[in-house]
Amino acid sequence: MQGKIKHIVVSTLSNTTTVTVSVPANKGFAPIVVEIPPYTTERIDLLEYYDLIDNHYPDVIEDKGILIQSTDNITAYLEQVETSNPDIFTLKGRHALGMEFYIPMQNKLDNQDFTDPARSSFDIVATEDNTVVTIIPTAPLTKADGTTYPAGSTIKITLNKGQTYSARSDSELAAGHPAGSYVTSTKPIAITVKDDS
């Protein structure tokens, strides 16, 4: 079962900090602005925005990238809340950005077969307009029409700032996870890896 991102958890350091959460590619998303005192941890609830920020479908360009800005240094992570499979995704800020990636994934355990099938996937977000992303998968990936991109094929997409793209394994089997897939881009991107969550 796919988990839902419920919170952004933010911790401040020695200064009061204003944190702004926005979805740059979706002008209909009203930014969330929170002022957080020094040495404090605050949970910013996102559950009501789930459909606006979660990549539901593979091989589709969506306007769902989250931008977190602050007036001072912070630490932050996304918190996925599920009874059976909770998780956190540490946010690395500008240190997460790059133009060349190899996708790290486990290939020992199969994904579970739920009503909403769990699949190993990776989500890409662009930080600038006209970002050309090239993906060379090591395992078949699901296309939007239900067919597949074969392993070793070349997938090219163009994303604007804040747009996202989800590359999803076509198999629940561990051997079908796209571990080691190669991703390059013409401008900085960030990638989030998901497996059975």
Query: Which percent range fits the helix content?
Result: under 10%
Number of helices: 1
The class by helix and strand makeup works out as: mainly beta
Q: Please give the radius of gyration in angstroms.
A: 17 Å
**Beginning-to-end CA distance, first to last residue:** 7 Å
Number of E-state strands: 16
Which overall shape is indicated by the principal axes computed on the Cα atoms?
globular
> What is the averaged pLDDT score?
91
Q: What proportion of the residues form beta strands (DSSP E)?
A: 35-45%
Largest sheet: 7 strands, antiparallel
Q: SSE string, helix = H, strand = E?
A: EEEEHEEEEEEEEEEEE
| Poorly predicted runs | none
How is this structure best described in words?
The chain is mainly β. It is built from one helix and 16 strands. It has one helix at 50-53; strands at residues 5-12, 17-22, 32-36, 41-45, 61-62, 67-70, 74-80, 87-90, 98-102, 121-126, 131-136, 141-142, 148-149, 155-159, 164-168, 182-194. Strands 5, 9, 10, 11, 14, 15 and 16 form a seven-stranded antiparallel sheet that branches. It is globular. The model has no long low-confidence stretch (mean pLDDT 91).
Entry keywords:
seven-stranded antiparallel beta sheet, mainly beta, 1 helix, 16 strands, globular, 2% helix
Short synopsis of the structure:
The chain has 197 residues and is mainly β. The chain is built from one helix and 16 strands.
What's the topology here?
Elements: E1 5-12, E2 17-22, E3 32-36, E4 41-45, H1 50-53, E5 61-62, E6 67-70, E7 74-80, E8 87-90, E9 98-102, E10 121-126, E11 131-136, E12 141-142, E13 148-149, E14 155-159, E15 164-168, E16 182-194
Antiparallel strand pairs: 1-4, 1-7, 2-3, 2-6, 5-15, 7-8, 9-16, 10-15, 10-16, 11-14, 11-16, 12-13
